[in-house]
Amino acid sequence: MAEASLVVIGAGVAGLTTALLLSRHPRYRIYVVAKHMPGDYDIEYASPWAGANYMPVSNRGTRAAEWDKNTWAPLDNLARHHPEAGVHFQECQIHNRSKDVGSATAEWFSELLSPSPWFKDVVPDFRNLDKQSLPEGIDSATSFTSVCINTALYLPWLASQCLKNGVVFKRGTFKHISEAARFTNRSQKVDLIVNCTGLGAAKLGGVEDAAVVPARGQIVVVRNDAGKMIDISGTDDGDDEACYVMTRAAGGGTVLGGSYQKGNWESQVDPNLAIRIMKRAVAVCPALTDGQGIEKLDVVRHGVGLRPVREGGARVEKERIDGVWVVHNYGHGGAGYQSSYGCAEEAVKLVQEALGGYLAKL
Ligand SMILES: Cc1cc2nc3c(=O)[nH]c(=O)nc-3n(C[C@H](O)[C@H](O)[C@H](O)COP(=O)(O)OP(=O)(O)OC[C@H]3O[C@@H](n4cnc5c(N)ncnc54)[C@H](O)[C@@H]3O)c2cc1C
Ligand SMILES: *[C@@H]1O[C@H](CO)[C@@H](O)[C@H](O)[C@H]1NC(C)=O
Ligand SMILES: *[C@@H]1O[C@H](CO)[C@@H](O)[C@H](O)[C@H]1NC(C)=O
Ligand SMILES: *[C@@H]1O[C@H](CO)[C@@H](O)[C@H](O)[C@H]1NC(C)=O
């Protein structure tokens, strides 16, 4: 049976999910080539630093909302039936302060902060919380059942599922797409390249995309249990800081965030910001330290990740570059997990369109 050779560049959640869905098609021979692989922690590799949860911030009626919507069912299925993936259900509360109206975080979260967001019928148990039950300073809140992904388990799980389906993994750094054949079985030409380079797309030669910028996210991972996820519309510490907590599946610890610092490439932890993150976390979730303040937080690590934000939204598109088909799937910003299956399914469709005629002729 005739086969097509595909090279997926990138082994973050976008590359791995796309490779996994492609690997279910028997006529594709798939290589994943990446500078960073699951297990690595690096400022250029966003995926390990994510919480990660499903908290849509996409606006109603957009392609991004469609991707998020199509990702819920696969994540729900993993949480229900595949404990080895490291995804579990958790209650999620969104706290809203009227004074945050117009701030950067509130703008970013506008759909999430709505009393009636588009996803209210997608996730289970969506409801508006009773005003009386809210902590001081919170004017309104919603709650729903979401998932929290332990990225330290989930990324290797995705890679393992790919390996089981015959995907070949190679370390490699691309300077230009013309190099693709170097990373494959050299006796075969490369029929298609899938571009899942995240923030790497801002620097890679060939078609540098100036619309891709980092939104720096600093986090603290602690051993303390929050038991639920909480996210607030803003903080009193500046427009580009955020406050959220979530407890990862399977003993993964609790992630305390955060920040959303656009255009900031700083890879080192800011110790002052770390203190503010911890203070805000114990204030919003006193259960973390039984009301005893940040001294009782048991820190696993401090970290910084860069969300690959693309002005105008993620790019899921096909393009012919120097005679080779390229399917792009990058620029997911703060939503790479919650849009992962929706985007990867669309990327697979584009691959099929691009190769359909070619495979038919063989
Ligand atoms: C603090 C923080 C919290 C977050 N929380 C959430 C959350 O709760 N939910 C959610 O959905 N999202 C969350 N995100 C966003 C999410 O992490 C990203 O959207 C997602 O990880 C992007 O995945 P990616 O595969 O596109 O990029 P990456 O994970 O950055 O992977 C890029 C890959 O491309 C490779 N690459 C790049 N350039 C080249 C090259 N030239 N040659 C070879 N390889 C190359 C890299 O080595 C890497 O393997 C969060 C992000 C941060 C930083
Ligand atoms: C959050 O607050 C804003 C501004 O007051 C308001 O428009 C919005 O409806 C609120 N959300 C909820 C869930 O009540
Ligand atoms: C390389 O490609 C050739 C031709 O398709 C094939 O016979 C061979 O098994 C391949 N080798 C590997 C390691 O994939
Ligand atoms: C991936 O897309 C980015 C942005 O357009 C570009 O810089 C890079 O060259 C692309 N890589 C490949 C292999 O097409």
TrEMBL record:
- Supply the InterPro entries for this chain: D-amino_acid_oxidase_CS, DAO, FAD-dep_OxRdtase
Binding-site residues for FAD, renumbered to this chain: T197
Question: FAD dependent oxidoreductase domain spans which residues?
Answer: 6-349
Q: State the source organism's domain of life.
A: Eukaryota
Q: Which reaction does it catalyse?
A: a D-alpha-amino acid + O2 + H2O = a 2-oxocarboxylate + H2O2 + NH4(+)
Subcellular location per the Swiss-Prot or TrEMBL entry: Peroxisome matrix
Q: Where does D-dopa bind?
A: G334
Keywords assigned: FAD, Flavoprotein, Oxidoreductase, Peroxisome
Gene Ontology, cellular component aspect: peroxisomal matrix
Q: What is its EC number?
A: 1.4.3.3
EC main class here is oxidoreductase
Q: PROSITE patterns given for it? A: DAO (PS00677)
Gene Ontology annotations of biological process type:
D-amino acid catabolic process
- Listed cofactors: FAD
Which GO molecular function entries does the Swiss-Prot or TrEMBL record give? D-amino-acid oxidase activity; FAD binding
Membership in a protein family: Belongs to the DAMOX/DASOX family.
Protein name per the record: D-amino-acid oxidase
